[in-house]
Write a structure and sequence with these properties.
two-stranded antiparallel ribbon, two-stranded antiparallel sheet, rod-shaped, 244 residues, EB_dom, EGF-like domain-containing protein, 4 domains, 3 helices, alpha+beta
Length: 244
């Protein structure tokens, strides 16, 4: 009988006490990084936090905040690495928050939220305004919203994407071969800052002479009423769609 009791005691001592189990002294807390607290339970030592895996509790090292001392990147908080001076800093794809305590993701699209101005840094020509990455003045979002492109102000200005042309020059503007042009059925204004629809009927509304000449031939935009009229010496044909 006595040998069995001795074996049981040995097994209990060998098993030790895990996290949150009762104890009389720290030697009884055999789980790594634990000690016996004043309340008589095994707790994590300073610098370690409890974690539950399945039905068991363990103590893991508390991640260092940005600027904290480290030896390997695993010592640092999420999104941070251990740099050459053994301090935690944000990894390449993240930027430091204004309070210096966390690493924020860079914005990838215009309209993404920004808790810090630096969040928008990888979006060309953008700023953090009212908590959102916004295109700077004179720029508009690309079709896929991945960056901000300079707005075209004149026909033949350079472009990469349709919105650069159509935003200011109008829906009749297109981006072709790297430049803004007026699409079929449209003609540039005299100062080339817009694309206006070509007028194909004598007597139809117009803004500039170019609309009339592009559609009717020798015609002009009459100041009185703002309609296309054939020039002196020319008359509209029977279909009213050409000056002859």
């Amino acid at each position: 009988m006595f040998p069995k009791i001795g074996i049981l005691l040995v097994l209990l001592v060998a098993q030790g006490h895990g996290l949150y189990q009762g104890c009389a002294n720290s030697d009884m807390c055999t789980e790594p990084h634990t000690y016996c607290s004043k309340s008589g339970f095994c707790n994590c030592i300073e610098g370690y936090d409890p974690i539950k895996v399945s039905i068991y509790y363990y103590c893991i090292k508390r991640p260092q905040e940005i600027g904290g001392i480290c030896s390997v990147s695993e010592d640092c908080s999420t999104r941070a690495i251990c740099n050459g001076t053994n301090k935690c800093e944000c990894s390449e794809d993240y930027v430091l928050s204004p309070d210096g305590k966390q690493c924020l993701e860079y914005a990838t699209q215009v309209g993404d939220p920004c808790l810090s101005p630096n969040v928008c840094d990888r979006l060309e020509n953008s700023l953090c305004i009212s908590g959102l990455c916004t295109c700077a003045a004179g720029h508009i979002p690309a079709t896929n919203h991945s960056r901000c492109l300079q707005m075209a102000l004149h026909v033949t200005d350079s472009c990469e994407d349709l919105p650069q042309c159509s935003t200011f020059l109008g829906e009749g503007a297109v981006c072709q071969k790297g430049h803004c042009y007026c699409d079929f059925g449209f003609t540039p204004t005299q100062n080339r800052n817009a694309c206006l629809p070509v007028v194909h009927q004598e007597g139809a509304a117009c803004v500039e002479n170019g609309q009339c000449t592009a559609g009717l031939g020798p015609a002009r935009c009459a100041a009185a009423g703002g309609v296309c009229k054939c020039q002196n010496g020319f008359e509209p044909n029977e279909n009213n769609d050409e000056c002859v």
